[in-house]
Please model this.
Amino acid sequence: MNYACKRLKRSEKKLTVRVPGSKSVTNHALLLASLARGESELFGMQSSGDAASFLECVQKLGVKVEREGDCCRVLGGNLLKNASVNVGSAGTAARFLTALLGLSDGEYFLDSSEQMKKRPMKPLLDSLVSLGASVTYLGEEGHFPFVLKGGKGGGRVKVDVSSSSQFLSALLAVAPVAGGLTVETTGSHGMAYVEMTVKMMEEFGVKVRREGNVFIVPVGEYRPLRYFVEPDVSAACYFYALAALTGNTVAVEGVSLPSLQGDTAFLQVLKEMGAKVDGCTVTGRELHGVTVDMSAFSDQAITLACISPFADSPTLIKGIGHIRLQESDRLSAMATELKKLGCRVETGEDFIRIFPSVLHGGIVKTYDDHRMAMGFSLIGTRVEGIVIEHAECCQKTFREYFDVLDELRESL
Model:
């Protein structure tokens, strides 16, 4: 499905948008509830592709889940000793479940989508092997698919987080039920999602101690909870960026500060660009270029890149080398597609510089990457003739995105 964008006019009225529950919080909550002994109730869960894949996987591992709308009951406890799971394209499921099964007493077959087979897994698998797990690769080494036999757990382990902080989050989250762990990190990466993991672990009853780059997790049990999932700030940021770009005022239902989600840092970026930011409500004004290290909230790199051509000075986005290893090579993809639309761009190993440019219409290739589709749709609210190719890839995290965008336009 291709989506033909339409320009969005400016209005004096405040626009209010509803977005799904956070993908990351949903998947964290599913995992922790699955490990808790007893029944948890989770409210406001996301139901898009990644979250659906995670839920299906935990069910195949023997966890009892009853779902009704955006709520579900999870009866945690013991996992099956043998099972086969396919994580699809869900990075969180891929990393979290691999860590869990690599420290469990069983043997498991893990597979994924073709897209996920290209993404790195080796740093996590190497850490699990050092703890006694064994891996039999059925394709390229360090990638899906593979057979995993669980190790002993407990003790001390190193993990390289250069390509993904999910490797660390995964080890921390499963550590309490796997004999406890002391995890030392190597490499550098933004830690916003690790902070989310640590905070949610504490909410479910286990406290992590940090000493520099070392994280100490005791043996413990997660407690079952009634848990409310925050709205997805990553999704909300597209509408905040739309406000900044079109001069409108936009609020997103349920988003508030403080938040578990590191993407709230994008609000400060919009403020530095000249937008009026009142709490979690954004009003657009003339945009100015900025220099920003987005290593801690890189999911918004494409979002920022897509509004930057409309600023009055260049924008430098740095610290994003790791996004080359996500659903697509995002750094290369955004540069390529911006250039196709007439934007002057410079790139390096871990940065992109976007210059003020007069853009024209064109067909945007999404590379089967939901963030490319949603990010580049923002340009279509200002420029005629923008068509988003394969817009259905948004089903990964926000299947209703383009419907919400259309409803917003019709409300003006």
Remarks:
- The mean pLDDT is 95.
- The chain has 13 helices and 23 strands.
- The two ends are 26 Å apart (CA to CA).
- Residues 233-246 form the longest helix (14 residues).
